[in-house]
Amino acid sequence: MKRRDILLGASSIATAAVVANAQITTAKQPDPKTSAPIAKPATPVGKNIQITKDLPGYYVTPTGTGKFPAVIVLMEAFGLNQWCKSICDRLAQSGFAAIAPDFYRGATYAYTDVAGAIAKLKSLNDDAIMGDVGKSIDFLAGKPEINVNGIGVIGFCMGGRYAFLANAAYPAKIKAAISFYGGGIDAAAGNPLGQKSLLDRVPLMQSPIMLMYGSEDQLIAAEEHGRVATALSKAKKRYILNLFPNAGHGFMSDRRESFSPEAAAEAWMMTTGFLSTNLKPKKRK
Which pTM was predicted? Predict the structure, then answer.
């Protein structure tokens, strides 16, 4: 090719680019004074409710309409506080209705008041708490926006133990369970909290369960992880056990000194994925 042809070709390309740019810059742009603003997705808004006459709680649903899967959120030993409610809100943003029964009937404890929280925890009764979980299931079943065949449970700390128990107490109604650092699932006899081991309830479970632990949790020994896993394996139950390095007890809560941002972010991705897999209707191929 001659040098003249090359120069002409390059000139043509440059001219085309200039024309294209001119067309873009001279195109009529929307008038910000008359154009409607781009609507942002609505944020789910939760509210305090009465699950039953004697059981208060917190309830939030995703925006829009439809049959939503639902998650029962079981609180830490510190009560139904703003952090617990924020977990419900995050679940709603991910497409799940969420309800948190208030086992303490209004009482909450600061994270610095460990003694007060433990004293309250010790006053609870496993059967009574499972009764509250049952009331929450019935509440959800009575809501037209809820897919009653897609109800799961998630719990933290004290609530993690109760999530494990709920999976056995309501095997036909709970479709998935997640236990975050649930201490006392295999509590030794005569332990200071008066908790009973729950491993004898494992054979009753029908739904998959995911267990979340921190490697630096000083309240739950690694040996307990092994005993829980062994019981689930022997009973041939579907389970996942995740151990997060450099994470302690309560690593999910950004209100606690033990908060681990990296572990919390990864655990939340696992949580929503596990719940979606087990609670949302399967798409037909």
Answer: 0.85
